[in-house]
Structures are given as structure tokens and as C-alpha cells.
Amino acid sequence: MNTPSLPDPHDRPARLTVGVVGAGRVGPALAAALQLAGHRPVAVSGVSDASRRRADALLPGVPLVTPAEVLAAADLVLLTVPDDTLPGLVEGLAATGAVRPGQLLVHTSGRYGVGVLDPARRAGALPLALHPAMTFTGTPVDVQRLAGCSFGVTAPDELRLAAEALVIEMGGEPEWIAEEARPLYHAALALGANHLVTLVAEAMELLSAAGVTAPDRMLGPLLGAALDNALRSGDAALTGPVARGDAGTVEAHVEQLRAHAPRTVPGYLAMARATADRALDQGLLKPDLAAALLAVLADRAEDSAPRQAPSAAGGDHPDERPDGEDQDGTDR
User: Fold this and answer.
1) Which of 16, 135, 298, 332 has the smallest number of Cβ neighbours within 10 A?
2) What's the rounded Cα separation, in Å, for the pair 16 and 31?
């Protein structure tokens, strides 16, 4: 299999023509970053008005065409669609003959490695999985955020240099993920980033209910310090009533949450139990205090009202959903 030559990034003339299938939040930003490195975006596919606006903002002058026309025009194609859409898209493109031999086909899903691209690989495409571990807004600021961003990279051995070069040209840092480890890798990112948003949003709502006029300003320094401490020290950074074994305080928390925000109670209890377990393992929580604390958590869990399942009605167009954040991030 022949790997395309990727010259020095400082060689400014365009080297690869770039196409984007799925103008969600990720694809146009990555294509714009590749453009800064000297590549040339030539085609984008997107259906919704939001997709068109993103393409216009990040890739002005690049035509919006069908996915098949994107593949016909580009040497390097970014498949930036939601995870559940990706397998069918690849199979359809390969079955219709849209894939060209020697074409670099890159998906940005955190969940999948290169195996999902096998139909296109059999048609001669060169498969890469490049997942930026970043959350995307769909605005030009995303291109700046790619500087120093880690990418979860999976590629055949013969394409490792090409994968590294593309990530570095976008300003990122390649982190190699084995094919079989992709789902675990993606779960870790979702646990850290996606659930963090939920926790912060719930905390701001509770502070507002408590009369705090600027909950974002109050939480900013606290959460920034907590994140920095956690990244530096791991479990040693644990603080608060659970890590101290203050069972009475935790019980009071649960009573207040049940009275003012009952939907937050199951999440609070689950995180408190997880925190207690980690604090015990690290020797931060004394066993005698842990017994009383865990008893409170168990009692409160029994009489905690179950959360109502979210409505399945509505939903965004597929290329409107955050892909790769997964951001992921994935988005995706």
C-alpha cells in the first residue's frame, strides 16, 4: 500500500485537496486547520442551515456538494458524522463506487478505530482514525483550541507517519490508541468531559436557587483549582465532606437536594459513593467514619425517587450533533 507523501509543513503551496463529509462542529474546524498548514479545502457536504453557516464561517468559498462529490474532489476526506451514522455512511460510499484508490479517508469518531473503514479500505482507500480530544463550538475559536490538543490516533502501521504528520499540522499531539482500546478510551473522555458539563450546570442551578447572583463567577476559581489539583495529584486532591467522612453534612445535602432539586439526588449519591471508595483506597477516609457515611448513602439511596427518563422526542439533524467530542470532548 502506498502512503501519500506529506512534505514539510512550512512548504506553503497546497499539497492535498481536502473534503468534509458532515459539516458539524468538528469537520470544518479540522479542515480550516489543515488549510492553515497549506492544504486546500475543496468541498463540504452538509444539509442543514447550521451546517451551511459553519461552512461559510470556517471555510468561506468552499462549495457545498453531495458526499459522493466530496470524495470525487478530494485527496483527503474527513468523515465527521455521528458515531452511529459512520458505519452505514462508509458502507454506502464504498458500495456506490465513490471511494477512490489511494484516497486518505479519515474519521474523527472516538468510539471506532480503523476497522469501521474496512469497506472503503477494500476499495483502495487509506484509513485513519484521528479523534481530537476537545469539545467544539462550531466557531473559529475551535481552530485555535487545536493547538496542543491530544488526538486519539489509530492507523495501520504503514500509515503511522501520515497520521502523525496530519495531527501535527493541525496543531495537535498524536496519542496512539490500539484498535481494541478505542471504546474504553472514548468512555474515559465522555466520563470526564461530558459528565463534567452536567455536574457544572447542576451546580450553577443549585447556587442560583440558593440566591447566588453570579454562580459562574463563584464556581470558576473553585472548579479551575479542583481540576488543576486533580490533574496534578489524582485522588490525593480529594477534599470535601465525603473525603472527610462528614456523614451529617452529606445527609443534610441529600435532604436539601431532595427538597429543591430531586432529580440531582441519584447523581449526588452515586458520585458520593464513588468518592468515598476512592478516598478509602487512598487512606484519606478513616474506616470508622466511612461506615457511618456509607450507611447514610445507602439509606438515602433506598428512599430516593427514581429519575424520569428523558423524552425521546425531537433531536437535531445528524450533522448538527457534536461529533468527535465526542467530543466527544468527542463529539464527538
Assistant:
1) 298
2) 11
